[in-house]
Amino acid sequence: MEPFKLAKQMIDFNKATFDNSFNAIAMLHEQMEKTQNTFLEQASWLPQEGRKALCEWVTTCRKGRENFKTVVDDSFKKVESYFANASGCNA
Q: Domain segments of the chain: what residues?
């Protein structure tokens, strides 16, 4: 039973580390998005096509970040359920 407890602690630590790192990166992305919006407001010389491309890029990055988070969270759930089921068999 101890190996499963140790594995669970390692998974919890890795999940917490990932969550903290992901949140820091998400904050950085949000700050860059605000900076870009400020730039777009002040850049009257930028053509509409360029503005549209930048806005689409931000949207794509946000969706990719959200999808990545969803996939990683699902993977952590699968690993946690594996160890929960495995530890129940040996108890």
A: 54-91
Strands (E), 1-91: none
pTM: 0.80
What does the alpha-carbon distance between residue 82 and residue 46 come to, in Å, rounded to a whole number?
53
Q: What pLDDT, in 10s, does the model give residues 63-73?
A: 999 999 999 99
Torsion sign across C-alpha atoms 70, 74, 77, 83: negative
Alpha helices (H) along the chain: 2-42, 48-90
Distant-in-sequence, close-in-space partners of 80: CB < 8 Å, separation ≥ 6: 8, 11
CB 83 within 8 A of CB 11: yes
User: Which amino acid appears at position 6 of this protein?
Assistant: L
Q: What is the pLDDT of residues 8-20, one digit of tens each?
A: 899 999 999 999 9
Distance CA 55, CA 61 (A): 10
Rounded Cα gap, residues 27 and 88, in angstroms:
39
